[in-house]
Amino acid sequence: MTSSTAPTPALHPATLAAHGGSSVADPYRDLAPPLHLSTTFERAADGSYPGGRVYSRDQSPAYDGVEQLLAQLEGGSQALLFASGMAAASAVLQALRPGDRVLAPQSLYWAWRNWLHEFCAHWGITLVEYANTDLAELEHQLNAAPTQLLWIETPANPTWEITDIAAAAALAKAAGARTVVDSTVATPVFTRPLELGADIVLHSATKALNGHSDVVAGALICARQDDFWQRIRRARSLGGAVLGPFEAWLLQRGLRTLFVRVRAAAANADQLAHFLASHPAVRAVRYPGLANDPGHAVARTQMHGGFGAMLSLQLAGGAEHAKAVAGRLRLFRQATSLGAVESLVEHRASVEGVGTRVPDDLLRVSVGIEAVEDLLADWAQALAE
To answer: Can you tell me the mean pLDDT for 7-29?
Structure first.
């Protein structure tokens, strides 16, 4: 009699995340992954490395589980951890050559925008900005001159414009350019850019991937391990912008609750956005989940199961009114970050300072997982005063 083994069914990403991307290992069969702190590894008598590791700057076992999990969640070939989202983004630019050309959106995370302009000027890279949602302009810019890299951020911080990833990536591919998508806000819970034609996905893992305001980290996930990806690997290895083992362990722990956290926060954000949109003290709400949002139709095609936990609102009373409302909120803490379990708010123009493109009556809101009734009541009292 012959026996057969049934194939292992493909697991949902939420299941992979809940298990932390690591298997139970002998000899202890511990469910939580071990914490690997060693910075160096012993050679055998003949000088070889039986453990396959040399030095932890680029070969820490602490990265293995979380990098494997991130690659699985994004449907990618390989993932790399970095010391921050900015470090991950910087490694992509460091893989370019002087004389290369980059297209970047007009609306994107302000610290990255500032660094991008400075780096490109010093590195001899041509940087051209395009309107986030204007595919005709994007196509024109891609065809205006040889372009090596298209940068997309969607939803775009802090006004949450939606770029059509599939359409933009197809235009970039036709023009011979790679596409990198900053998917920090969408997360793999709602959007998987590699499936839409992107070449690389970026995450500031500090935000929703970790979700607890206690880790600064970044990650890149590639569709294929080509020469450009190897240059990114080399930039991380030699530049040393790597994550500590404890931070990697915390990130892996945070990822285990990613799907329940992000879905709960997005559901709260959706209710809050609708509440604020109908309030007379609010001039406008920017949230792709609203049916009248300019990006709603595209968001519905590439964000599945929710529209994220970020929104912005503009106050009818102007900048001073916005600052006053932020100060009266009790549950929404005034702090800089997003994607964590607690709700945050900030007057974004004040944070960005001189040169900001953010309207001065705008408040950026990161919605957490608190009881939505409490969140709505907090805004009701702040706006009522």
So the answer is: 81
Query: Which of the following is catalytic: 109, 261, 263, 323?
Result: 109
| 286 classed as catalytic | no
Strands of 282-286's sheet in order across: 282-286, 310-315, 362-366, 344-347, 333-334
Q: Which of 101, 113, 178, 207 is the catalytic position? A: 207
55 is catalytic: no
Q: How far apart are the C-alpha atoms of 72 and 65, rounded to whole Å? A: 11
pLDDT tens-place string over residues 261-275: 999 999 999 999 999
Q: Helix, strand or coil for residue 262?
A: helix
Are residues 57 and 75 in contact, defined by beta-carbon separation less than 8 angstroms?
no
Domains, in order of start, for the chain = 13-255 (3.40.640.10), 259-384 (3.90.1150.10)
Q: Given 100, 164, 182, 199, which residue is catalytic?
A: 182
Cα–Cα distance, 346 to 262 (Å, whole number): 20
pLDDT in tens, 229-248: 999 999 999 999 999 999 99
- Residue 322, class by beta-carbon neighbours within 10 Å (0-12 exposed, 13-18 middle, 19+ buried)? buried
d(CA 292, CA 259): 27
109 classed as catalytic: yes
* pLDDT tier, 8 (very low <50, low <70, confident <90, very high otherwise): low
How many Å apart are CA 122 and CA 124, to the nearest integer?
6
Radius of gyration, alpha carbons of the chain: 22
Please, what sign has the CA dihedral across residues 30, 33, 37, 40? Answer: positive
